[in-house]
């Protein structure tokens, strides 16, 4: 351009390769040895006021575009995982489909660049007619992962599909017909498929566990126990976690689940003696972290254990570590708010954590109730 049509331009605008800030210089003179005077430079620019305005506009546009690109590049991609359908329609196998859904939610939650909607909101869609756009709107998600599970003896068939919400476009799908022993490999492959198609990096992620089919089946049963915030279901879940640990003493998530179950059961029944539960909660959380230092739910459980002992600084450190490892788990934000911030009168901080919990879990009535209570405590009645 500057060799032909732009030959007479007063300034040359250059955009360095790989950069976003323009450089301005005067064009080189055709005849060597002649240098324009300062006065000549000024007069040439002053004769073109439109050029000044154009340059200023270009700089503003480039700066604005750069800011937009940086902000949107860093914004995590919102994704919801709908409860997988149990295609053999045997209610006795619902726990397996639900447990697998829950595991995928947790596996995806620790992938950098993803904002995964929490379990409660996802399971609010269970049993409802599937409409991707409506589900995406309710979950405030850009993508939806849906699937179906068929378990027959020791065989497992899983079909999954990643759908873009705004146009119902199936971005990726996978079909897995394997032995039940391949369940962990299947979960890994699903995570990789999503990461690759959303142009993300898998990173370290959650540890790949190796355990027996029997132990993992029991673990999914424990995870599927309904309403584990209440004492009776929490005690039942704790009993199943003990069975998992008996079959595989090195399975860290079972210890974390056991600690969380003890935390829930010991927080209720105020006339009961909870000494054994409190001791077991602390021991289980510490064992989980010993086996897997990067297990977010283990740090969450240890935070609750410290809080019960009044060790507030250690408790806060554990909760913040859990959030750092898994920033998409609404339960951790709620625990942090309920077990430390609220009791210590740090209401504004508690409110902030509950709002983060609601963002991760927009359909959870439990989170909504606690957020309402925190708002009232903060004097925000409107």
Quick take:
This protein is 54% helix and 12% strand.
User: What is the arithmetic mean of pLDDT?
Assistant: 82
Number of domains: 3
Oligomer: single chain
Main β-sheet description: 6 strands, mixed
CATH architecture name of the largest domain: Alpha Horseshoe
Examine the coordinates and then state which fold CATH places here, giving the name of the CATH topology of the largest domain. Answer: Serine Threonine Protein Phosphatase 5, Tetratricopeptide repeat
Global structural class: alpha/beta
Gross geometry: globular
Q: What is the tally of helical segments?
A: 15
Radius of gyration: 28 Å
Q: Please give the alpha-carbon distance between the first and last residues.
A: 61 Å
> What percent strand?
5-15%
Poorly predicted parts: 30-45, 66-73
Q: State the CATH class of the largest domain.
A: Mainly Alpha
Q: Percent helix among the residues? A: 40-55%
- CATH superfamily (homologous) name of the largest domain: Tetratricopeptide repeat domain
Features:
two-stranded antiparallel ribbon, Serine Threonine Protein Phosphatase 5, Tetratricopeptide repeat, Rossmann fold, alpha/beta, 382 residues, 3 domains, six-stranded mixed beta sheet, 15 helices
How would you characterize this protein structure?
The structure is a single chain. The chain has helices at residues 38-46, 49-74, 94-109, 119-123, 132-139, 183-197, 213-223, 231-247, 252-266, 275-291, 296-308, 312-325, 330-341, 347-360, 365-377, and strands at residues 12-14, 23-25, 77-81, 85-86, 114-116, 143-152, 155-164, 169-179. With 382 residues, it is of the alpha/beta class. The chain folds into 3 domains: 12-74, no CATH class; 77-197, TolB, N-terminal domain (Rossmann fold); 213-377, Serine Threonine Protein Phosphatase 5, Tetratricopeptide repeat (Alpha Horseshoe), CATH 1.25.40.10. Strands 3, 4, 5, 6, 7 and 8 form a 6-stranded mixed sheet that branches. Strands 1-2 form a two-stranded antiparallel sheet. A hairpin with a 4-residue loop joins strand 7 and strand 8 (169-179). Helix 7 (213-223) runs antiparallel to helix 8 (231-247) and helix 13 packs antiparallel against helix 14. It holds the Pfam family TPR_2.
């Amino acid at each position: 351009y500057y060799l032909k049509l732009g030959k007479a331009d007063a300034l040359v605008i250059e955009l360095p390769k790989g950069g976003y800030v323009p450089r301005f210089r005067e064009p080189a003179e055709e005849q060597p040895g002649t240098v324009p005077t300062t006065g000549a430079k000024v007069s040439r620019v002053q004769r073109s006021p439109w050029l000044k305005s154009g340059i200023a506009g270009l700089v503003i546009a480039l700066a604005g575009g750069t800011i937009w690109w940086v902000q949107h590049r860093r914004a995590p991609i919102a994704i919801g995982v709908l409860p997988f359908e149990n295609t053999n329609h045997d209610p006795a196998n619902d726990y397996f489909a639900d447990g697998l859904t829950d595991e995928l939610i947790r596996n995806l939650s620790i992938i950098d660049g993803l904002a995964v909607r929490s379990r409660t909101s996802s399971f609010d869609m269970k049993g409802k007619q599937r409409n991707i756009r409506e589900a995406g709107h309710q979950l405030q998600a850009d993508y939806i992962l849906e699937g179906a599970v068929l378990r027959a003896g020791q065989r497992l068939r899983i079909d999954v599909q990643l759908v873009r919400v705004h146009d119902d476009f199936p971005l990726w799908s996978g079909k897995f017909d394997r032995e039940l022993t391949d369940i962990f490999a299947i979960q890994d492959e699903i995570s990789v498929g999503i990461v690759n198609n959303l142009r993300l990096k898998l990173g370290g992620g959650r540890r790949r566990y190796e355990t027996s089919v029997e132990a993992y089946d029991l673990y999914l049963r424990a995870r599927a126990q309904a309403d584990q915030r209440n004492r009776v279901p929490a005690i039942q879940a704790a009993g199943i976690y003990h069975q998992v640990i008996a079959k595989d003493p090195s399975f860290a998530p079972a210890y974390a689940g056991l600690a969380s179950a003890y935390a829930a059961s010991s927080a209720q029944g105020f006339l009961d003696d909870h000494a054994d539960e409190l001791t077991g909660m602390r021991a289980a959380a510490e064992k989980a972290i010993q086996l897997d230092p990067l297990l977010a739910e283990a740090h969450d459980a240890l935070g609750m254990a410290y809080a019960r002992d009044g060790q507030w600084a250690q408790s806060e450190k554990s909760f913040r570590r859990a959030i750092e490892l898994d920033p998409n788990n609404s339960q951790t934000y709620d625990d942090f708010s309920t077990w430390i911030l609220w009791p210590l009168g740090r209401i504004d901080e508690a409110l902030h954590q509950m709002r983060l919990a609601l963002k991760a879990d927009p359909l959870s009535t439990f989170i909504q109730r606690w957020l309402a209570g925190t708002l009232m405590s903060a004097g925000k009645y409107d």
